[in-house]
């Protein structure tokens, strides 16, 4: 029998559950300003997703500063404070091992905007209008 993790079918339920626990804890820590670093207290950072490695030892945290400005500075500040953040997460979430934190910029909002722009193109709109008139004539 093939191992589910190696079958390429996506993250396991456990990975998703632990990722959500870490995401909630990290969001709470950043929202409360529990860290003494002024670089993190002066900017609001959202954490839309946390992806866990299969062994749950690495958490890749996708983050975005409010307004999408100073992303490099936010990632640098989070990376600098990864150890204190990891300790704070360990105090909030009961895990056998507190995962190592890695931070990446979340590009899902940009991707969504790009898809919206593509759907608004005149060529696509024309195709959509053709499909709706075709379905009306079929009835």
The succession of helices and strands, N to C, reads HHEEHHEHH
Q: Describe the main β-sheet briefly.
A: 3 strands, mixed
Based on CA atoms alone, the radius of gyration comes out at: 20 Å
Give the overall average pLDDT: 83
What is the count of β-strands?
Answer: 3
The assigned structural class equals alpha+beta
Q: What's the number of helices?
A: 6
What distance separates the N and C termini? 49 Å
Helical residues, percent: 40-55%
Account of the 3D structure:
- 53% of the residues lie in helices and 16% in strands.
- It is α+β, with helices and mostly antiparallel strands.
- Strands 1-2-3 form a three-stranded mixed sheet, with helices on one face.
- The radius of gyration is 20 Å and the shape is flat.
- It has helices spanning 13-32, 38-41, 71-80, 82-92, 108-119, 122-137; strands at 45-52, 58-65, 100-105.
- The model is unreliable at 1-5 (pLDDT under 50).
